[in-house]
Every structure is written in structure tokens, then in C-alpha cells.
Amino acid sequence: MGYEVDFLGVGSESKSGDAIAIRFGNLHGRRDEQTVVVIDGGFSDTGIELVEHIRTHFGTDTVDLVISSHPDQDHINGLEALLNELDVKELWLHQPWQHNQNLADEFADGRLTDSSLGERLKQNLERAWSLAKLANRKGIVLKEPFTGLTDKSGAVKVLGPSQSYYEALIPDFDGMPARADKGAVSNESWLTSALRKVTEFFANWGEDHISDDGQTSSKNNSSVITQLIVDGKRLVFTADAGIQALAHAADQIDGCQSGAELKLIQIPHHGSKRNIGPTVLNRLIGEPVPHGEQRSVMAIASTAKAGEPKHPRKAVLNAFNHRGARVLVTRGQGIMHYHNSPGRAGWSSLTPEPYHFSYEEEV
Known about the structure:
By secondary structure, the protein is of the alpha/beta class. Helix content is 26%, strand content 22%. It has one domain (2-174, 190-342, 353-362): Ribonuclease Z/Hydroxyacylglutathione hydrolase-like (Metallo-beta-lactamase, Chain A), CATH 3.60.15.10. It has a seven-stranded mixed beta sheet. The longest helix is centred in the N-terminal third of the chain and has 15 residues, at 44-58.
């Protein structure tokens, strides 16, 4: 048994995104001995690249499973091309408009109804709604990816979110009305944004410059966190999940009886500083290690070619380095992580990201 995990190089300029193509099984054998999975499709133009990548490197027009982690455009937009151009058997996609029972009670405006809020969610998340309709038209099996869902092989499993956690996040999705139990939360003002400046930081090995208090959006926290276990090796894909969502996923890993060893973890939200903290990182990877020591764990951040200093944050890369992970960043280029797979012409080994003893960051 083996696997290939390809992080496509999404983002030719400054906007980062995710598009991940996976195949596992007997990669030296026939197609029917393999499973092909896609997690997210990047932007619209990424979808065609993803289709050609699967045809060229996986040698197939059939995708067994597509997982849409959450409905941000840098993750979902490219999936329409995938469903149109390839033979997709199953799609895992959250459908929040089907979780509107008693939703009106969450909001201050008494004129709202559960039905009207369901329609609002369809409009606000039009790409997800369109993808669900497309899957139904094509006869693709459509499931909602909540904790515990597994694929036919049993190797792919959803670690989060649970349905109850997901439903608790929906009232705070972008474009929803003001909540009844709290005031509106404003985005960063234009003045604050204009005053942001780039500052140089200095770091010592083992000192985390990330916090357990980081906050991300509810939509990001609704991201599907996916686990793949092949040949005793665990691979974890985090999309844009934040600290709270990752802690729930860590609970699932703690309860896993497989004994699988972590080999790959996706650095959440393209290396954003708000999505990871030292406590949950210790749970997922382990405690910091002495300088020069390494674990057999690869950590990959999917970032745009010109995404820095926002994506990825050097403090985040350092935190993964502290814990002995070998850190790689796409920066608009594809990266393949593999085990027991055939060689691939034209692909060469990468040097892991160095520890950044000094770096510039927007503050």
C-alpha cells in the first residue's frame, strides 16, 4: 500500500488557496486497486489544472471522492470544473441551508423565519449551493462531512466538525443578520489597516511567537478536517480550521485505536497566525524538540507565489519547526508527498524551510 499527495501550486500572485489531489492503494497495480480523492479545488482556473493533473499523473478520468472543506472561493470555485470534466463518484459538501431549524431564534430581527434564513444561506454560499445542484443533476452521491464519516475504503475519515459544532457556527457565517445575544462584530477598520506596518522580529529556538488566543472566522472553523490512514501512516488535512476546530480534531485522534503514526499535516489556513496555537500544536505533533532534532513528520503550507508576509507567517513555520516537523511551503509551486509510489519524471526533492531567526511581519 502506498500514497501520493499532491498540493497544487494555487496562487500565481498574492491570493493563496487549496487544491489537493490524492491517490492511495497499490500504486504499482491497476486503477481498481487505487482510490483517488480530491480535497478542494482552488480558484476557478485551478479546476482545469486539477483535472489535467489527475489525468496526467494519476492516469484516470475517475475520482472516487471529492471533499469540499468549506465554501471560500479559494477552496471551492475550482470544483465545478472537476465535477463537469471528470467522472466523480461521491461529493462531501456541507449544506448549511438544510440546518435552519430554529435558526431564526438566534437573531434579533423578529421578522426572520427559518425558511428565509435557509434561502439567505443559499444566496450567501451560492457556490456551494450550485455545486450541490450540479452533483444531484449528475447523480453523484452527496454526503455532509461530519465527524466520523468514512469513505468506502475506510481509510478516509472526517475528524471534524461534528454536526452540533457546525450548526453552532452557522449564525456567525458571513452575511448573516445581527445576533440576538451580542452586538455586531466589525471588521478591521480602514484606518487600522492603513496603519499596519512591517516590523522585524528576532526569534530564539523553542520560543513560540504564536498564541492560544488566535481567532478565525466561523466559516473557517467549519472546515472539514480530514484524516487518511494508509499502511500505518496518518495524514491530516486541516483546510482553514482554527484552534477550537483543531482541538476537536485532536480529541478524535486521541481516541483513535489504529496506532497510526503522523506523517503529514497541512499547516492550516496557508500559515495564518490566527489559526494555530502552541497547545493544540503540541497535541497534534508533540512537544518542542531540541535544536537539530527532527520527527518524521512533514508539514506543508499551501500559499501563493507572492503571499508573504501574510501567508505564510514565519512565526507559524517556526512553531512547526520547533516540534521537529520538516516544513515545506508551495509558494505557487506543486509539492508531492509520497510513500511506496512509482517515481515521477520531472519532480525533484525539496529542501525544508529553514528556521527563521529573524523575519519581517505585518503588525
